[in-house]
Design goal:
This protein has twelve helices and twelve strands. It is of the alpha/beta class. The chain has two domains: 222 residues, inorganic pyrophosphatase (n-terminal core); 121 residues, Diaminopimelate Epimerase, Chain A, domain 1. The strands form two sheets. It has a six-stranded parallel beta sheet with strand order 3-2-1-4-5-6. Strands 7-8-9-10-12-11 form a six-stranded mixed beta sheet, with helices on both faces. α2 runs parallel beside α5 and α6 packs antiparallel against α7. The longest helix is centred in the N-terminal third of the chain and has 16 residues. The N terminus is likely disordered.
């Protein structure tokens, strides 16, 4: 367990910090002719929303921009793309971007393990790569980057870029008011704050939400599309995870696992694991939850970590630090990792860990 202190404001990787300004990035985008925007593999709402927001902002000022996303990506999220230029590629046979780009913008990550499919292509263009992130750990992916761990989502950081570019957040909206920059920003903000339930939903995030709602975002329609439009197979997958539930550390840590066979038996897809890790957090005694997923096709085991804010004694579990011990990272209360090992080996490692 960890007691809060000012040390959490410092990234454990000293080099992963801001080395340019939002104003300078905005100017570079204004001068660019062709821009590619990408994010981590298996993008969540914040990752895809960030890609959409930057692509739409560039389009608003006449810059040729397109998104490049390595799947899987939930269909409920993809439904908000509209006509925005986003290329989705298969992680098992990644197609690399064709032609050259003046700038490459990497959003919502700065970690090589999360950009593995595009890593060689990005490394060859480091001086043209710009990073925009709100995670505490990262690598030298981008020559110029802005990192703000105080933002509740990457889109909460991007609003400063949109404003610096002089772009109206209502830009991009279709005749129904859908597919605007505001909608993309709200998708990232709402999903990364757990629809404003998580500790990262602070006054600043609510203020931004109010601004985006005033710009025309339909929050009820978005919630229904993302959270209440699942297939039955996803609920069956949740049942598989819950059937494996075990308690560690005297009931303070919940551990679940999903085998490759669970996906075959239920017909669920890898992207449908989103949110399952949060279910055991409903238990009063649980301070952290871990979901371990076997990805037989990729030959890896993926881990998701979640934890609650400080309790009455002022202590909490820093899952960012826990994930780092397994080669991953993220936030204090939400993190992830990947291991090239068998499911049983990874489960044994987690069981042996000190939280």
């Amino acid at each position: 367990m960890t007691t809060p202190s000012t040390s959490f404001a410092t990234s454990p990787i000293a080099a992963y910090e801001t080395n340019t300004s939002i104003a300078e990035i905005a100017e570079e985008l204004r001068l660019a002719r062709r821009v590619l925007v990408t994010t981590h593999q298996k993008p969540d709402g914040d990752a895809l929303g960030s890609v959409l927001a930057v692509v739409r902002a560039c389009a608003a000022i006449g810059v040729d921009a397109r998104g490049w996303v390595v799947d899987p990506c939930e269909g409920n999220l993809r439904s908000f793309e509209g006509t925005t230029l986003v290329r989705h590629v298969d992680p098992r046979a990644v197609t690399l971007p064709e032609g050259e780009f003046d700038l490459v913008v990497v959003v919502d990550t700065g970690a090589w393990p999360q950009l593995e499919a595009l890593a060689p292509w990005l490394r060859a263009r480091t001086e043209r790569v710009i990073g925009l992130d709100h995670h505490a750990r990262g690598d030298a992916v981008a020559a110029r980057r802005v990192v703000d761990v105080g933002c509740g989502s990457c889109t909460a950081l991007l609003i400063r870029l949109i404003d610096a570019m002089g772009v109206d957040v209502r830009s991009g909206a279709d005749e129904r008011g859908r597919c605007s920059i505001a909608e993309a920003l709200y998708m990232g903000l709402a999903t990364d704050t757990g629809w404003f339930r998580f500790p990262n939903a602070r006054a600043e995030e609510f203020a931004l939400a109010a601004r985006l709602l005033e710009a025309g975002v339909d929050k009820d329609a978005m919630y229904q599309q993302i959270e209440q439009s699942s297939r039955a197979a996803r609920v069956e997958l949740q049942a598989c995870a819950l059937s494996s539930l075990e308690m560690l550390d005297s009931g303070r840590v919940a551990l679940m696992q999903l085998r490759a066979s669970d996906f075959g038996e239920t017909g669920a897809m890898p992207e449908e694991t989103a949110g399952i890790v949060n279910i055991p957090m409903e238990i009063a005694a649980v301070r952290a939850s871990v979901l371990i997923v076997e990805d037989a096709q990729a030959g890896v085991v993926k881990l998701s970590f979640r934890s609650k804010p400080a309790d009455d004694s002022g202590t909490y579990i820093d899952v960012n630090e826990v994930a780092a011990r397994l080669g991953g990272g993220g936030h204090i209360h939400a993190a992830g990792a990947k291991q090239k090992a068998s499911l049983s080996e990874v489960v044994a490692r987690v069981r042996a860990m000190k939280f």
